[in-house]
Amino acid sequence: ILKTLLAPVIYDLTESVKIDFVFINGSIECPPSVGIAEQYDGPYYRFLDSHGPNAKELARLARSMSRSAVSPEDFAREWRTQGMGMTMTSSAHPCDLLEQQLENHPDGPFDGVIAFSEGCSVAASLMLRRAAQGKAPLFAFAVFFCAIFAIHFDRSGAILADEYPARISVPTLHVVGARDPALLSSLALYNLCDHDLAVLYDHGKGHTIPWGPITKEITNGVCECIRRAQYDL
Questions:
Q1: Residue ranges of the chain with pLDDT lower than 50?
Q2: Residue 79 has what pLDDT?
Q3: Which partner from 18, 30, 40, 57 sits 20 to 30 angstroms from 51, CA to CA?
Q4: What predicted TM-score, i.e. pTM, was given to this entire model?
């Protein structure tokens, strides 16, 4: 699904730079979200196996809570208080599963990561865990589309910038949508990155990667993020 969503960006990038993409599925098979089955054939996978309302109800709750939140971190704390969307039922932490996939993948190691929605959550959580452990960054750059919260390694909820000292210290691009119900969760992840190396770009739409004239602007942003990681394109 992400490969399809990114198709115009991938086309623009591969037309002008030497870059290869490898797509990694989540490890948990799941039913399709609203509208997915009509557009994409199964099976369907995700990284997070969590309790909570369906996607439509989550979006309604997020919009409601966004109106009263004074900061992205307060918004996340309200989610944590409500117990929404962060209670994982899988015995293995998704960071561990992703790290294993990356270590064992025949095309690795990888220079950077591009992720969407909960994929951002897992990738960023893994990067933050390594930072907290004093390990070298797993990636030289990261591009996050419509991110949701990074996840605490002890499963206690979202990682928040005003509660957690570690930061993602590589160049990052945060592509957000002003009409995305998860906008504040994207900004909460942005705040966990070194702001001297992080760029925020608002495509003005919802929880999606839009196609059209805006594709070139997004592609330029991705290229610049990679250049800031000192890659010769």
A1: 232-233
A2: 79
A3: 40
A4: 0.89
Residues 6+ positions from 191 with CB-CB distance below 8 Å: 72, 73, 160, 161
Q: What pLDDT does residue 28 have?
A: 82
Phi, psi of 95 (to 5 degrees): -60, -40
Query: HEC profile for the chain?
Result: CHHHHCHHHHHHHHHHCCCCCCCCCCCEEECCCCCCCCCCCCCEEECCCECCCCHHHHHHHHHHHHHHCCCHHHHHHHHHHHCCCCCECCCCCHHHHHHHHHHHCCCCCCCEEEEECHHHHHHHHHHHHHHHCCCCCCCCEEEEECCCCCECCCCCCECCCCCCCCCECCCEEEEECCCCCCHHHHHHHHCCECCCCEEEEECCCCCCCCCCCHHHHHHHHHHHHHHHCCCCC
For 186, the token pair is 């994207």
| 102 contact partners, CB below 8 Å, separation of at least 6 | 24, 108, 109, 110, 138
Angle between helix axes 118-132 and 183-190 (nearest 10 degrees) is 20
Spatial separation of the C-alpha atoms in residues 122 and 5, rounded to whole Å = 19
Residues recognised as catalytic: 117, 180, 207
